[in-house]
Amino acid sequence: MSFTRQLSEMSASELNDAIDDTNFPQAHIISRGRNNSVCSTSSTSGTSSLADRVVAQPEETQPPSSTGSEEPAPIHPNRPRLILKSSTSIPENDGHENCTFHHDLELDHKPPTREALLPDMARSYRLLLGGLGENPDRQGLIKTPERAAKAMLYFTKGYDQNLEDVLNGAVFDEDHDEMVVVKDIEMFSMCEHHLVPFYGKVSIGYLPCNKILGLSKLARIVEIFSRRLQVQERLTKQIAVAVTQAVQPAGVAVVVEGVHMCMVMRGVQKINSKTVTSTMLGVFRDDPKTREEFLNLVNSK
Ligand SMILES: Nc1nc2c(ncn2[C@@H]2O[C@H](COP(=O)(O)OP(=O)(O)OP(=O)(O)O)[C@@H](O)[C@H]2O)c(=O)[nH]1
Ligand SMILES: [Zn+2]
Fold this sequence. Notes:
- It comes from Drosophila arizonae.
- Pfam families: GTP_cyclohydroI.
- This protein is α+β, with helices and mostly antiparallel strands.
- It is built from 12 helices and 8 strands.
- Strands 1, 3, 4, 6, 7 and 8 form a 6-stranded mixed beta sheet that branches. A two-stranded antiparallel sheet has the order 2-5.
- The site of zinc ion has 6 residues, from loops.
């Protein structure tokens, strides 16, 4: 079973199940604003040494490895590698492992590509225009159904992507044991309740265990999961789980700050409110110093 398929199929509760109980995400509130992504590496010193901030787990409490003996021994034996539980609840591959659209939305049809959906989608938009009392045949609207269908496919193009392809092998063996943070990654997503956008920024940190990830791949992971119909909480968790699957680090931290247009343009109409969600796994959850170091880096100018 490919790890890509596991993630694409997971509901929020399945993601929770996949994360070892000791690493269940906690919520933190932060607020700040910056536009550009910044990659930071931080050295640990003095009282915040690596040994201090790692909470070593006794052998018997280690989460079971999904790959068994294939896991390389960590360079730092007292740093537990964060490994997802084997996803026994995930059904076996039925030959549609790349068809994440099918799996995420639990639809019956199995389109060979999502582009094949365009004609039906365009017809639906044409009906919608009629429903609005518009004339879909007037000059300005004649191509609108097709344009809107293409736009919607773009907004949800993450359904066409999978983690393995996106990583493209850019996982490197490296004896680096300090925190890596890529912050302020722009994010555009679609609220699954109202089909209107929410947007904002994502900050990701991880503590490597012998493996590092190509930096751009963190932003690409954000794209995989933000370009779908989403809720912010699930998006946050999926990003953290994907980073865990990619490099099995000692810990992963993800903070997402989002503005939901369903709360701005309609409904409660609160134009200044922001939603902040976080997922803290491994040492980021267990060790307050590590979490604080991450949040300081995320909040620094
Ligand atoms: N938890 C969560 N809720 C979301 C997200 N995006 C939208 N929502 C909420 O989904 C809820 C849907 O509530 P409903 O009462 O069914 O729909 P509604 O009548 O349009 O609700 P209002 O937005 O309050 O007008 C609203 O409270 C939205 O704010 C999200 O990413 N996470
Ligand atoms: Zn909404």
